[in-house]
């Protein structure tokens, strides 16, 4: 929290970010939400969409309603169902009469320490968008881009008129995405990064947390490289005789607050599961070994 204490945080106001796009920042800053969840309003005409309505907090809902004004809300869209993203969907739908459209519902009790929010059991969409499906309103079109990995139900939304992509938690400029098994899946995450890297039409990413990404393909390429470097580091740890995750984490995350080591271990586990699927490592109980 110290790192974000002095960053300007314009809560309760709608900020213009670009053509057709405004942002309202929720007052839920934390080590995994940065300055808070960014709810996006898409559209400048008589109808608009709301992306990632955020936490069910009266202040945030009131700010969204003020920003919406007299416009009709065509859809309330969620990128995924962590509790910092989707709980406001239902109360906002009640206030506006808008349908909840976007990712599939998912509630899961994880089996390890988390570095992000738990799942939202209240999320109940009126319609689930499949990969490539679109919704539209006056002057705007949002197309769903399935990007599983951070969660199995994660979806990005491409604003076709401007080249903007709402990247949720899949790609953020301030931090790498958490990938925590059993629902977080490194294999799917890497495939989704490659999918976004192939989309040359996207010129800016608006993530759910942190600043806009103005060189998205460059960032995604770097993220892919970072993850590949991390998996090689894990393989080197095993080769050096560190066969259990806590020992790997202690070596790989020297200088990192030990309170975060449990969550770091989840990321290491996600990489190991991916390496196991690719026939590069095998496990025996809590121990991991390289395969020739």
Automatic annotation (TrEMBL):
Q: Which residue ranges does the record assign to the Metallo-beta-lactamase domain?
A: 36-209
Kindly give the Gene3D superfamilies that the UniProt entry links to this protein.
Ribonuclease Z/Hydroxyacylglutathione hydrolase-like, Winged helix-like DNA-binding domain superfamily/Winged helix DNA-binding domain
Out of the domains of life, which is the source? Bacteria
PANTHER family on file = ENDORIBONUCLEASE LACTB2 (PTHR23131)
Q: What is this protein called?
A: MBL fold metallo-hydrolase
